[in-house]
């Protein structure tokens, strides 16, 4: 069973079957620029990483609410201790 539907090509890939060298060069340049944009767009990559982390944290909270609560308390204590230590070092 075959399908005549076109296969979607990612932005950073060059489609196959381009016979014209000028069109091939344009497609390669477009793919290269898209790849550079994907790699260099740090705010977008950071946003995606934060969204993934939030999704994982919510899933962890649903699976194990007690451990999630303990993790939040331990994190808050660690941040408080770090701030206290920095202030103490600064005021000496």
Automatic annotation (TrEMBL):
Keywords: Membrane, Transmembrane, Transmembrane helix. The chain crosses the membrane at residues 66-87. This is DUF3618 domain-containing protein. It comes from Microbacterium salsuginis.
